[in-house]
Amino acid sequence: MAERPEDLNLPNAVITRIIKEALPDGVNISKEARSAISRAASVFVLYATSCANNFAMKGKRKTLNATDVLSAMEEMEFQRFVTPLKEALEAYRREQKGKKEASEQKKKDKDKKTDSEEQDKSRDEDNDEDEERLEEEEQNEEEEVDN
Amino acid sequence: MAAAAASGSGTPREEDGPAGEAVASQPPAPTTAPGARLSRLPLARVKALVKADPDVTLAGQEAIFILARAAELFVETIAKDAYCCAQQGKRKTLQRRDLDNAIEAVDEFAFLEDWALTLPSLLH
């Protein structure tokens, strides 16, 4: 499979934005430096993946999980990343849970709708009886007012 | 009536009303809660990098997400370290050499020297 090198690079615009936000205002970055950072980031991901994969294989798993990546960070001497990554992971899990619940809720509402349509039919019959009663009461009131 | 006629021969004035909104050419912002920037790097690209490793079979979504976030932290870190070098030279523009200096100076970045050599096809 021929994969172009560009496809394995991260988008320049995003890299530039991250760099600019990390640095004080007024600081610029040359094109070569930015491109070098972008490639370094790609290498970082590849290296981290390889480390994480070692942990997965140790655990006899075929799927890389979040813990493997966190262990890789420590292995690579990027312990300072571990805490912010754990926080980010929790926020991500909450968001995923929220999305899942939202879609489940939608499904429940959809089911409820089909159920309630059947219920409404019987409810309408009850309402008709109530309306008749109300009309009688109104007639009575009118009689009283006339008097 | 005269005022209406004076305002123009019926052509709508777009500057005034809300109809004159500029069409945003930027991609839509991710729908994350304010203050909680989960990830700016596209997960699809990160996933492509992970898959490039022949030893990797599968990677969970959480793993991809953490890798993306870690890459962002890495970019911030290396940019700041490189900036320290530029500051010493009293420059306001980060140059390639600042980056090279940072990589040499910081132990954690040593892997960049090794890997850049072993994967030339990916990073030319």
TrEMBL record, chain A:
Keywords assigned by UniProt, alphabetized: Nucleus
Ranges of Acidic residues composition bias in the record: 125-147
Superkingdom of origin: Eukaryota
Pfam families (alphabetical): CBFD_NFYB_HMF (PF00808)
Basic and acidic residues biased stretches: 93-124
Transcription factor CBF/NF-Y/archaeal histone domain segment(s): 9-73
Signal peptide residues on this chain, from the entry's feature table: none
The UniProt record lists the keyword Nucleus: yes
Coiled-coil ranges from the UniProt annotation: none
Subcellular location: Nucleus
Role noted for this protein: Accessory component of the DNA polymerase epsilon complex. Participates in DNA repair and in chromosomal DNA replication. Forms a complex with CHRAC1 and binds naked DNA, which is then incorporated into chromatin, aided by the nucleosome-remodeling activity of ISWI/SNF2H and ACF1. Does not enhance nucleosome sliding activity of the ACF-5 ISWI chromatin remodeling complex.
Protein's recorded name: DNA polymerase epsilon subunit 3
Gene: POLE3_1
From TrEMBL, chain B:
Cross-referenced InterPro entries: CBFA_NFYB_domain, Histone-fold, Transcr_DNA_Rep_Reg
Region Disordered, annotated ranges: 1-37
Gene3D superfamilies (alphabetical): Histone, subunit A
Key words, A-Z: Nucleus
Major localization listed first in the record, in broad terms: nucleus
Pfam family, one: CBFD_NFYB_HMF
UniProt subcellular location: Nucleus
Domain Transcription factor CBF/NF-Y/archaeal histone: 40-103
Source species, domain of life: Eukaryota
Family matches, as PANTHER family: DNA POLYMERASE EPSILON SUBUNIT 4, HISTONE-LIKE TRANSCRIPTION FACTOR CCAAT-RELATED
Name listed for the protein in its UniProt record: DNA polymerase epsilon subunit 4
Organism field: Saguinus oedipus (Cotton-top tamarin)
